[in-house]
Design goal:
Strand 9 and strand 10 form a beta hairpin. The protein has eleven helices and twelve strands. By secondary structure, the chain is of the alpha/beta class. Helix 7 packs antiparallel against helix 8 and helix 9 packs antiparallel against helix 10.
Length: 325
């Protein structure tokens, strides 16, 4: 919010454009409080976006919590469509709809933020003939979002927030002279999002099916074949950049390994009890199984603890492992 407040404070009431804002919010957040906060810093007329609102110049629209903000035919669309990169609202969803509806008239702006939302959407705006603008990552409180955009999209401007208002006003006053046809895949993908859920034949037109599953619904993923940003989406509408999908797989793998570690610890404890109660050769066999299992437990624990290794041989247990095991 500090970055947003600093930016909108620079925009005049007579701005010849409409401003749409996506902020990543918790589902139970108060969007009205944020609108009041923004309104106290700007002369723009501020609204918490409502479905069907007419879009007006000099007006600012904030995406409500847990809803995507889209634009089409001079009106606002507010939907509870599938999350994109695990976000709802998502900047990618807004940028895509702006690219489809307004083509070269759209200007996409990415400010401070974490992870990768906005990167794919900025590329769609560029492909539709629009302008891509990001905050200088060196001054951003969280540089991940602008850095991701710079690394993957041919950004037109990367400037500090203090210079962004004047630049936006200049860009809004300069209408593009050449017409630019919006690519068919952008129009199709935007239409799917407007209907909330797409159909498999439609998604097949956007990409090729790959042997990967959607982290949120378990459906098949399609790899988008248009543009340079590697993206994936399922037919229900969940969408991911490759970086976002990789992060999801890493978290799922870690969760699975912690479960495996717990089960191995339980198995070790059961074998230890069996060895204590047993006699003779049978008891010795259980103790050997316990020793073997301890080796696997120690290796897995070291891997989970950021790959840290001990100076002891794999078959030996250090003090920390002895206390934990």
């Amino acid at each position: 919010m500090p970055a947003l407040c600093q930016l909108v404070a620079q925009l005049p009431a007579e701005l010849p454009a409409s401003v749409f804002i996506v902020q990543h919010l918790a589902p139970d957040s108060s969007g009205q409080y944020l609108i009041e906060r923004l309104a106290s810093h700007t002369s723009l007329r501020c609204h918490l976006a409502e479905d069907g609102q007419h879009i007006g110049k000099g007006h600012l629209y904030l995406a409500p919590p847990d809803r995507h903000l889209l634009v089409k035919d001079g009106h606002v669309m507010v939907t509870k469509g599938p999350r994109e990169n695990h976000y709802r609202p998502a900047a990618d969803a807004l940028f895509r709809s702006a690219a489809a509806a307004y083509g070269p008239l759209a200007i996409g702006v990415v400010l401070t933020g974490m992870l990768h939302d906005g990167t794919a959407g900025l590329e769609l705006i560029k492909r539709a003939g629009g302008i891509a603008l990001v905050q200088d990552p060196h001054e951003a409180e969280y540089s991940s979002m602008p850095s991701s955009a710079l690394a993957n999209v041919p950004i037109d401007y990367s400037v500090p927030i203090s210079e962004m208002g004047a630049l936006l006003q200049q860009l809004c006053e300069t209408r593009p002279e050449e017409k630019h046809l919006v690519p068919d895949d952008i129009l199709l993908e935007a239409a799917i999002a407007e209907r909330v859920v797409g159909k498999t034949p439609e998604v097949q037109q956007l990409g090729r099916q790959v042997p990967l599953t959607c982290p949120e619904c378990g459906g098949t993923l399609w790899e988008m074949v248009h543009g340079k940003v590697l993206r994936y989406r399922c037919h229900t509408g969940h969408a991911y950049t490759a970086d976002s999908l990789l992060r999801d797989s890493q978290e799922s793998l870690e969760e699975t390994l912690w479960v495996a570690l717990r089960m191995m610890e339980e198995r070790k404890n059961l074998l230890t009890s069996m060895a204590i109660r047993g006699e003779g050769q049978w008891s010795v066999q259980q103790e050997e199984r316990v020793d073997e299992l301890k080796q696997h437990i120690n290796r897995l624990r070291e891997f989970l603890l950021n790959g840290r290794t001990t100076k002891n041989p794999i078959g030996k247990v250090d003090a920390e492992s002895s206390q934990a095991g």
